[in-house]
Structure formats: C-alpha cells, structure tokens
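Q: Can someone sanity-check these two? First one:
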Amino acid sequence: MSFGVLPTKVYLAVPFSEKEHAKQLGARFDWDIKKWYIMSNHYNLDELQEKWKINTEPVILTGEDRSYGGNDLFIDLIPRTCWFTNVRYCTDSRDWDRLRDCVYSRVNNTCECCHNKTNNIEAHERLYYNNDTKTQKLVRLVALCKMCHTTTHIGLAGIKGKGSEALEHLKKVRNFTNEEAIEHKEQAFQVWRERNTIKWNLDLSLLTNNNIKLIKNVSSKERVDIMDKTLSAF
C-alpha cells in the first residue's frame, strides 16, 4: 500500500521586515536553524518560493583577515557616532542572511571565542579604526554564542541589566580574576570614549568586493544624525 510522499519543509529567504507578511501567507519559523519555511504541499508554494527565493550561491569573503582580533573574548564597544548603522543596517537582508550562514557554517556553529557548539549563534563584526582617515573598516566576521556576543557589547548588556552576567562570563572564558576583568572593562571604555569624539566613515569594501549588495551608503554625518534621531525616539 502506498501512502504517498509526506510533505517536507521548503525554506524561504524572508527579510525581517517582511516576516509578518510571510506569517500571514502561511510561512512558519524554524527556530533550530533560524529560517522561514513553507510545507511542500502548501497551496501557494510556487508563489512564495518565487517571492522569497533563497540564493544558494556560496559566500566567499576574499580579503577577509580571519586572524584580526584573535579568538580571545574581549570587550569591543561600538562608538556612539556609529550606533544603529552597522553592517546589517547597510546590507540587503537576503545577502545578510547568506553572509551570516557562511560565518556559522564554516565553524560548524561553534563559538569562535568560548568554543561551545550551539544553534544560538550570532555574527559579530570585527572593525579596524583608522584615526587618520576617520574610517571604520570591516575586516572580519566572527561567529559568537549569545553570551560571548553579549559580553563583547558589555555596555549594551549593562543597559539591559545583564552587565554583571557579562562580566562573569568574561572572567570564566578568559580565566580572569575579578580585578583583571574590571581593568579590561575600564580600558575598553577608555578606548570607547576616545572614539566617541570622531565621526566615522564606514568602509564595507570587504562585502562589496565579494558581490554582497548594500542597500544603504551612509556618510559620517548621516551616521551621527541617525544615532541622534534614533535615541531621541526612545
């Protein structure tokens, strides 16, 4: 007796801004791999696949310096003048998904700092700051677990009430004493305060040189204006 072919998941490249629309059309979210999908027997399958077709072309980041910053966990604060205009803000959402999938898969979903394997993993930007040209340049993308990423942005963690937890994680991963962890944090904030005085240009040539599409190009002045406007809305 034949029972036919069971329906399977067909994954979609749904941008975050369109998730509610996708949900209304019957798409569901797979939390294990963080992708939207539709079942293969869905009545609207062809239309949804055409609308949110996944680009399967692999991402190869030629020119990336995968040694930049090393693999030790450290506090890496983003200057205020660069808030809200990061790589994800400037990158087409579908290309951003391809980009982060590349970052995760090349390390087999393993955090590059604490070496824990997890599905709860995030992409973090390693940036080089050139004080002479006032340029913030993307040099590397690393895969970090949720807690290592939270610790990296410990200032934001503090705002969210997770500052102590982040500091404890830093101590654990780096085998720091409490005094060493506090000193590390103070040094990071000192660098942050100095960088806050500069309006930074953003160099994403690592992406554009590898056919990653940008949907926004922002000047140093526009970045500050966006930061001020976003903060005033809180």
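And here is the second, same format, sequence then tokens:
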Amino acid sequence: MKNKQYPIKSGLSTAKLFWPEFKVVDDLVFFGWCAPDVIDFDRWHDKTEIECSFNHVHILDCFSHEASLSDEPWWNSEHPDFKAACEFGKLWAEAISYKLKKEFPERNFYIYYTEQDNPIVRFHQKHVNEAKYVSPETWEKEINCGKIVIHVV
C-alpha cells in the first residue's frame, strides 16, 4: 500500500508551524513571525498579558476549512474541520512545549490549548508575581474534558 502523498511545500509549511522559530525581545519570548520590534510596557497590564496577546494563534485562521458560520458563534463546533482543528491545536501545543523547553531550558513556560469559540494555542513565560493566563482551579471542568490543555515546562 502506497502512502498518501502531499505537496512538499505543504509539508514544509506544516513542519515550520510545528517547530517554530522564537524571538526574544526585552526578555520576553515570542513566535518569530509575530514578535514586536519594541514593547511599550506602559500599554500593558503585565508581561504575561504581552506574551499571551502576541503569542496566540487561532488554528482555523491558519488553514482553509468549511467550519465557518455566517453568524455567531461563527464556527460549527460539530463540523469535521472544527474537530480536526481541535486535534491539531492539542498536538501543536505539545510540540511548542518541547521546542520551548529545548531552546530555553532555563526558563519556565505555560502553553495553552483552548477551544471555547475557536481553537487557540498561546504561551507565556512564568513571570514572578504574575498570574497564569489560565488558572486550572477556575477551569477544572474544561480541563477534565479536554477543552483546555495546559503544558508546563
């Protein structure tokens, strides 16, 4: 049986997404493609908010799909494409956690997968005296059913 073949450029694009480049700006870590050149710290509540804001990716925005709806909630959560985006997001969050650990072994990170309205992956460092983006105690039900996944590295 022959393996299914995909265009090599699609494979390379997906590999770069799964194994992204990171950039450090003012001691904050960002996906390379969205890192700001300068950070206006006065504009933000804290470092966690900065990293979470820049480092959040809506999975459905990365791929063509047929899960869109014309009105709120904007996504058909029962559509196979939405479910595929959820599975991709969970796998991608795990891959990012490995990459961050490999590149920044001296730093601690939280990597999140959430699917409340659109599957999203985001991350931030553990900053002293700052709250995590998602508190496991607050979202216990969603974590237990896999709608939120938190990787700690």
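A (reply): Looked at the second one. The chain has a mean pLDDT of 93. Helices lie at 8-18, 47-54, 59-62, 80-103, 140-144.
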